[in-house]
Amino acid sequence: MTTDERPPRKGFFTDTSVCIGCKACEVACKEWNSVPEDGLDFLASSFDNSGRLSADTWRHVAFIEQRAPLGHQDSGVGRPEGTAGPVDLGMPAFEPPGAGEGGGQGDFRWLMSSDVCKHCTHAACLDVCPTGALFRTEFDTVVVQDDICNGCGYCVPACPYGVIDRREVDGRAWKCTLCYDRIGDGLEPACAKACPTDSIQFGDVDELRERAKRRVEDLHEAGVSSARLYGEDPEDGVGGAGAFFLLLDEPEVYGLPPDPVVTTRDLPSMWRHAGAAAAVLLAGAAVAFAGRRS
Amino acid sequence: MSVWTWLASWPVLRQATGEDRTGRGAAVRSEETERKRPRIADADRVVKSVCPYCAVGCGQNVYVRDEKVIQIEGDPDSPISRGRLCPKGSASLQLTTGPARRDRVLYRPPHGTDWEELDLETAMDMVADRVLRTREETWEEEYAGRRVARTLGLASLGGATLDNEENYLIKKLLTALGVVQVENQARVCHSSTVAGLGTSFGRGGATMFLQDLQNSDCIVIEGSNFAEAHPVGFQWVMEAKARGAVVIHVDPRFSRTSALADLHVPIRAGTDIAFLGAIINHVLTEEKYFHDYVLEYTNAATIIEEDFRDTEDLDGVFSGFSEKDRSYDVSSWGYENVRVAAAAGDRSHHVWEGDEPAVGHAGRPEQHGSGGAVLHEGARQDRTLTDPRCVFQILKRHYSRYTPEMVEEVCGIPRDVFLRVCEHLTENSGPDRTSAFCYAVGWTQHTVGSQYIRTASILQLLLGNIGRPGGGIQALRGHASIQGSSDVPTLFDLLPGYLPMPHAYEEETLDDYISAAGYPHKGFWAGMKSYTVSLLKAWWGEHATAENDFCFGHLPRLTGSHSTYDTVMAQIEGACKGYFLMGENPAVGSANSRAQRFGMANLDWLVVRDFSLIESATWWKDGPEIESGEMRTEDIGTEVFFFPAAAHTEKSGTFTNTNRTLQWHDRAVLPSGDRRSDLWFMYHLGLLIRGRLADSEDPKDRPVLDLTWDYPLEEGDEPSAEAILREINGHDADGRPLSGYTRLKDDGSTSCGCWIYCGVFRDGVNQAARKRPGNEQDWIAAEWAWSWPDNRRILYNRASADPEGRPWSDRKALIWWDEDSGRWTGYDVADFEPDKAPGHRPSEEARGVEALSGVDPFIMQADGKGWLFAPAGLNDGPMPTHYEPQDTPFDNPLYGRRSNPTRLLYPHELNRYHPAPNTPGALVYPYVVTTYRLTEHFTAGGMSRWTPYLAELQPEFFCEVGPELAEERELEHGGWATIVTARNAIEARVLVTDRMRPLRIQGRTVHQIGMPYHWGPNGYSTGDAANELMSIALDPNVHIQEVKALTADIRPGRRPRGPDRVALVEEYRRRAGVTERTGTEG
């Protein structure tokens, strides 16, 4: 394929400020990709019983219960005059009613966020794959070819987000393909299509980045100062993610690494250094030989 | 393959010669990757369908290849769902094609210890024999000297998950057989909606549609877990929010709905009337009501009878209350000098007597599902609204003590939070702005459920929010066709279109029936005779003639309440012997699951039609009572038949969603094995029964033999659903489909199976199957499917214009009077006579529809007005009054009466109530419990606990408690807790969460416990059923159970096993001093 025919880079923008935590993304993904059900584990972790992204969970909705004012999980667009600003949740303080005016109230919010493979610009999983099972598609997404993967597992520790994982039953590596088969046919990925509130948006990454920036600005204007983007910056440690997020708190809160770096970033310089060292050694050896001759 | 191609496919060569020198892209593409295409690209066909879970009614595209369903996705054409699906809808491929579905008939003989296989034909024959045998044994020609022509030995439950056509056949066949105990989930979920909205506005359906929420300026979600129970519908709330609307969630717990709201207001479960009543008081005293709307479109100015007395005068009861009967004589509630129809004149029994069904009119308020109660003459008015006897002043007085302070006392909501809700609501109501209320079973399932809905109705009328874009009340329905199963009712007290089932006492003849139900002098109920005669023609065809009263005598008669809970008690007593369960699981989903099982254990036979072996099918083998030793399988004589049911993809038909929209879904594939649609089942059962009775001379068999029962058969011997929908729509004497219910005649020349659905086959076209994409239409999308009545999407929309017919504001324009054309015009179909001018005033002699004036937007109401005060139609009061739930930790600070004095109670060893508050025994059950749905599961779990993709998301039954309660009772997060009531004890995993916070009420701290109710012991994900804890205590209007507010104790650890479980419940009862009288007073 020549560069001219290359379609624009595709990705996800997941706007967690409108996520209702319904997990339609998790199910739609499993239905489409025939991802196996992976056990009945009651995790007592709010409403999250999937735990994390894994070989059998390609979309994962995190639930975070916080003692922090509400209004930060708030669409906040076009808010009429006078109603902007963080909105108090109205949870009563544990004190006689009326006494808790103001301060004691509104100290609770419930964040929900659907996580997925980031489809990094610099993808370490892809770099380390020795078989060519992982490859970069014409949409600039990163996909595992299950007919090639031999289950070596090099990719697993390489991922700075802990996304890719080996399936116990067959040992091969599995993760989100950004529905490579669907998008190749002009269809939306299953999760984005199902998402009831459009929290998961699929499209051209450039356009999504624009949209995400506008969304953050709108939220800031509406007083949701905690809104920030995660993974959209081409300057970050993975060269920008193809799947990026609007978060309402620090990434760590959602279980995301604050400053992910492609684990293969230093490989070239390591090789360079190793090469230099080898050269020096060789040179030293040569000098030594030369010295003896002389 | 040439050598060159072969070589070129070698990745190394590709890498070396192509652009991808690093081997991380094109060079490493495998053959499989090259071939990769979405599987739906190879589908043979795409079938348009509708999601079978909740009542949002999301469009689905079903992809079929080689006669197998290979994928189910959202249909982007649907203007309701816009292609989106929740996790349940997304899992419907697994639901319909997964291994959890049974495909063979199973049979358990009496006293048998295991299932046996049985072929379908034999099973059908056996069921037909049993129906006839039981009918013969229990036939009741007369009751107390009156002809009833019925059997109380048979009952049926289920229909809300079925198609309208299926409900139609169930009701038709069973009614002809004389079976009156025909019920479905609508009784248990939304019956109070019908009474509440019906008596207020004239129809029992949501006044608005989901997409209209995007036009709201303020949305109050109360009594509903909207985002979790109707996730795809919630997109319209998010749309409104994005446009700047304020979203308020009033709920005992902080749910996923609260997380997206601007304001969450925690409330003590069971106190919403106090809260809403106080907003009414605020609106009235602060003069925030929409004056012109209230004056012109409501009955605010009407003068009430002089001898009416309010709860303010009588300490918590209205005039006409009889302590002995615990019921009302409602004659003093009427408009001055206006006779009120007898609709509420007879009442159902109030304390169940056990051995004989009490006599009275049960459930009549549900008749107002389409058509309000009836008045005979015009009433006197005071348009200054100052007469102390006018509705406005009576209302003001009734709510005068519902103050912010009282809200604190009763609901636990701080004053400032309460006032903020008032401000949001009043600021966003008026000519230029509208607010909407969204509720669900958090309001309906109370002993005062109907009055919860009434309170919101009154408030919305005062604020002028009914019939206007973005305004209204959305009754969020939770089953695919629960609206449909009320419209085409599998309900004991209704005939299709909210016509009442005839009563034995005053309704011997058709004319008696029409006049007893109240032949009105004004409004569309004037057509009642036409609707009834046309129904009788649809059912009995040529046999129905004017000479024989159109076979009116073929209908069995009611003598009292035959609701599903009365049926359960009748089963326990041994009076009801045969039971059909069609897509319903009462052993998990109905209040007091234990009583449900004891009822079933006393049957002769039970037929269960479902996907999997639900708890209601297997209790005789592995139910909790088998484990506890209270029942022994060998001792149980109930014969059980299990029939595997067809899925929505395997049958055609219509679901009526929460918008009142009938949406057709096409069959994608034929059901396999013994799986059949309920349409097939009822139709063929009818054939078998008719065959057996063919030579009968017995008059009781005439209704069955005279029945019109010849539907064309399609592939798989499935009767044509379209033919049945045509029958429902109706036709004229020449067989031409009718275009609307105004065409119906009372002379027998028209036939119509459900008058409110008349028009769904207008012009011979299946209007419900219209699928013009939403993005090709305006926001109303009138050409997507069909809504009753007459494809109107916003009811009472005449009220969107001022009395002169002009929109109240440009921003909120919907329909208006066009002087030039002399017609109502606008975006929606006018819910009004299209050419009746705003200035029209009827003559004194005018009757029926003629008598409606140009300013009567509530055309189904007897006076054309929205009812702030209901002079008729409800059994427990003309205005909502705060009463405490049956099981409550508090007395009623407003009145001496604690609970609804007319509530229906069923004291029985299996159904004990909790001691009154402030007695020593009450402390034994100190905590407030409420139940709810989760996004990941569906009702009693039959369609989710067996579905692995859903089960893994919420794998175990849990309870939610606050950290304070956890500390008080030493509950461990992630551990186990046992929850105990006087009915049963269950165990649940514990989630300790800040989302459950204690409230301060009357100086005390109240802890609330939240529990989803989806679990039961069968399936892939298992757990105890929350409904084990519930008592049977019912709303007196509609017999809905109170399961949204009760009391219980909670203790750490798992519940005892075996007989010890029963002993634990006993021990609690003993400590609390529970007797058969406990809780029945007050």
From TrEMBL, chain A:
<dbReference type="GO" id="GO:0045333">
    <property type="term" value="P:cellular respiration"/>
</dbReference>
<feature type="binding site">
    <location>
        <position position="22"/>
    </location>
    <ligand>
        <name>[4Fe-4S] cluster 1</name>
    </ligand>
</feature>
<feature type="binding site">
    <location>
        <position position="29"/>
    </location>
    <ligand>
        <name>[4Fe-4S] cluster 2</name>
    </ligand>
</feature>
<dbReference type="Pfam" id="PF13247">
    <property type="entry name" value="Fer4_11"/>
</dbReference>
<feature type="domain" description="4Fe-4S ferredoxin-type">
    <location>
        <begin position="108"/>
        <end position="139"/>
    </location>
</feature>
<feature type="binding site">
    <location>
        <position position="155"/>
    </location>
    <ligand>
        <name>[4Fe-4S] cluster 4</name>
    </ligand>
</feature>
<keyword id="KW-0411">Iron-sulfur</keyword>
<feature type="domain" description="4Fe-4S ferredoxin-type">
    <location>
        <begin position="140"/>
        <end position="169"/>
    </location>
</feature>
<feature type="binding site">
    <location>
        <position position="152"/>
    </location>
    <ligand>
        <name>[4Fe-4S] cluster 4</name>
    </ligand>
</feature>
<dbReference type="InterPro" id="IPR014603">
    <property type="entry name" value="Formate_DH_Fe-S_su"/>
</dbReference>
<dbReference type="InterPro" id="IPR051555">
    <property type="entry name" value="FDH_Electron_Transfer_Unit"/>
</dbReference>
<dbReference type="GO" id="GO:0030313">
    <property type="term" value="C:cell envelope"/>
</dbReference>
<dbReference type="GO" id="GO:0051539">
    <property type="term" value="F:4 iron, 4 sulfur cluster binding"/>
</dbReference>
<protein>
    <submittedName>
        <fullName>4Fe-4S dicluster domain-containing protein</fullName>
    </submittedName>
</protein>
<feature type="binding site">
    <location>
        <position position="120"/>
    </location>
    <ligand>
        <name>[4Fe-4S] cluster 3</name>
    </ligand>
</feature>
<feature type="binding site">
    <location>
        <position position="129"/>
    </location>
    <ligand>
        <name>[4Fe-4S] cluster 4</name>
    </ligand>
</feature>
<dbReference type="GO" id="GO:0015944">
    <property type="term" value="P:formate oxidation"/>
</dbReference>
<feature type="binding site">
    <location>
        <position position="19"/>
    </location>
    <ligand>
        <name>[4Fe-4S] cluster 1</name>
    </ligand>
</feature>
<keyword id="KW-0479">Metal-binding</keyword>
<dbReference type="GO" id="GO:0046872">
    <property type="term" value="F:metal ion binding"/>
</dbReference>
<feature type="binding site">
    <location>
        <position position="149"/>
    </location>
    <ligand>
        <name>[4Fe-4S] cluster 4</name>
    </ligand>
</feature>
<feature type="binding site">
    <location>
        <position position="176"/>
    </location>
    <ligand>
        <name>[4Fe-4S] cluster 2</name>
    </ligand>
</feature>
<feature type="binding site">
    <location>
        <position position="191"/>
    </location>
    <ligand>
        <name>[4Fe-4S] cluster 2</name>
    </ligand>
</feature>
<feature type="binding site">
    <location>
        <position position="159"/>
    </location>
    <ligand>
        <name>[4Fe-4S] cluster 3</name>
    </ligand>
</feature>
<dbReference type="InterPro" id="IPR017896">
    <property type="entry name" value="4Fe4S_Fe-S-bd"/>
</dbReference>
<keyword id="KW-0408">Iron</keyword>
<feature type="domain" description="4Fe-4S ferredoxin-type">
    <location>
        <begin position="10"/>
        <end position="40"/>
    </location>
</feature>
<keyword id="KW-0677">Repeat</keyword>
<dbReference type="InterPro" id="IPR017900">
    <property type="entry name" value="4Fe4S_Fe_S_CS"/>
</dbReference>
<feature type="binding site">
    <location>
        <position position="179"/>
    </location>
    <ligand>
        <name>[4Fe-4S] cluster 2</name>
    </ligand>
</feature>
<feature type="binding site">
    <location>
        <position position="117"/>
    </location>
    <ligand>
        <name>[4Fe-4S] cluster 3</name>
    </ligand>
</feature>
<dbReference type="Pfam" id="PF12800">
    <property type="entry name" value="Fer4_4"/>
</dbReference>
<feature type="binding site">
    <location>
        <position position="195"/>
    </location>
    <ligand>
        <name>[4Fe-4S] cluster 1</name>
    </ligand>
</feature>
<feature type="binding site">
    <location>
        <position position="125"/>
    </location>
    <ligand>
        <name>[4Fe-4S] cluster 3</name>
    </ligand>
</feature>
<keyword id="KW-0004">4Fe-4S</keyword>
<feature type="binding site">
    <location>
        <position position="25"/>
    </location>
    <ligand>
        <name>[4Fe-4S] cluster 1</name>
    </ligand>
</feature>
